[in-house]
Amino acid sequence: MEISKLGKYEIDRDKEARLDAIFSALAHPVRRGLIDLLHVKEATVNELAAHFELGTPAISKHLTILEKAGLINRTVHQQWRTCSLEPAGFVHLKDWTQHYANLWEGSWQRLDTLLNTLKPQEKPQEPREKEQGS
After folding, report:
1. pTM
2. Rounded to an integer, what is the distance from CA 126 to the centroid of its chain?
3. What are the CA-CA distances from residue 130 to residues 8, 123, 125, 126, 134 (Å)?
4. Between residues 92 and 4, which one has the greater pLDDT?
5. Which H or E run contains 2?
6. What would the DSSP string read from start to end of 65-124?
């Protein structure tokens, strides 16, 4: 157990290292772009590089970072190396962010409740008097 500034806080070092690698990998816009492209379909390094103003060596370095973070897989098909997303890496990210998503959901529900209490109650319309003198 580690001591934090706020008191005692248990840290799962493996889980924290995984999250550090994921957040570090996603911190760069090129790597987020690669993830977006791979979300559509698996691709080779050359296919991915065609979307950026970077050479294949630079794209390969970014892909290595994503692979080490557990966000993509690279497989060899004959002479081609294809990249695809690794869903398990995103599960770690989802699990961590889910807690905060629940906080937001609770905030939205509290806001809805508040707005409903502040909403003026609609008054029923009074019937119009018939016009006289026809």
Report:
1. 0.69
2. 52
3. 76, 21, 15, 12, 10
4. 92
5. strand 2-4
6. HHHHTTSEEEEEETTEEEEEE-HHHHHHHHHHHHHHHHHHHHHHHHHHHHHHHHSPPPPP
